[in-house]
Amino acid sequence: MTALLDVRDINASYGHSRALFGVSIEVGRGECVGLLGRNGVGKTTTMRSIMGLTPASSGQVLWKGRDITPWQPFQIARAGIGFVPEDRRVFSDLTVIENLDVARRASQRPGPWTIEAVFDFFPKLRQLAGRRSGFLSGGEQQMLTIGRTLMCNPELLLLDEPSEGLAPLVVESLLQQVSNLKRQGLTILMAEQALDFCLDLADRVYVLQKGAVRFSGPSSALRDDPGLREELLGLAPPVT
Ligand SMILES: Nc1ncnc2c1ncn2[C@@H]1O[C@H](COP(=O)(O)OP(=O)(O)OP(=O)(O)O)[C@@H](O)[C@H]1O
Ligand SMILES: [Mg+2]
């Protein structure tokens, strides 16, 4: 069967500085796949290359078997890939509901996600509907960024370090929410440095080192093998 997303041997650079060295990743429909690795190994660049924001200089990105490598980011979004970037770029002068409305107007894809559906999914956002987004907490901004991306009715969600900088209790509720999205059948590719968060959600993981895939396998392989975790991520503590 054709993978929903098939990244084949891509290279990518920033100017003369090479960031990806032949990265290959597959994501099947309904899967939640984790992209792990330390700072600067190329997790964000991989996602940016999939989105066409840092286009691959060679290799291919196939979406449902179709080569989207040369496509513009807006075309890729319209084809059904939603990107939640690391830096949670909400429009800080706009209210929560205005941010969602901007996404609604930009969305070209029919589907179940309306503003009401996002509020049902993140009830906290309904309470904050009239608040300027610049005054939201980090966790609330993360919900808004995810909600805004869902408004485009993606089939695949790229989540770049969703738990970064959030307090443990907030991470716990985010984990529940991402897990609910997964249960609803959304396909997810998630970059994370928080190993527990990633292993709790992901069916399979890829570990990057220096812009290349060093390991791919089921999450359980990393969970059950401290030596492997140490080798790939430099993390010795047991995963609970
Ligand atoms: N805009 C940029 N210009 C030049 N080099 C960049 C740029 N963005 C990233 N890089 C470099 O590309 C490499 C991969 O970075 P990338 O952001 O993809 O890593 P990452 O795994 O997402 O790291 P982190 O966990 O810190 O988010 C790093 O060496 C980084 O310094
Ligand atoms: Mg990153």
Task: Describe this structure as you would to a colleague.
With 240 residues, the chain is α/β, with parallel strands linked by helices. It has 10 helices and 10 strands. α3 runs parallel beside α6 (138-150). The site of adenosine-5'-triphosphate (ATP) has 13 residues, from β2 and α1.
Identify every distinct bound molecule in the structure, by name, code or SMILES: adenosine-5'-triphosphate, magnesium ion
User: Which ranges are low-confidence, i.e. pLDDT below 50, for 5 or more consecutive residues?
Assistant: none
Tell me about the largest β-sheet.
Answer: 6 strands, mixed
Question: How many extended strands?
Answer: 10
Morphology: globular
Instruction: List the secondary-structure elements in sequence, H or E.
Output: EEEHEEHEHHHHEHEHEEHH
Protein traits:
240 residues, alpha/beta, 6-stranded mixed β-sheet, binds adenosine-5'-triphosphate
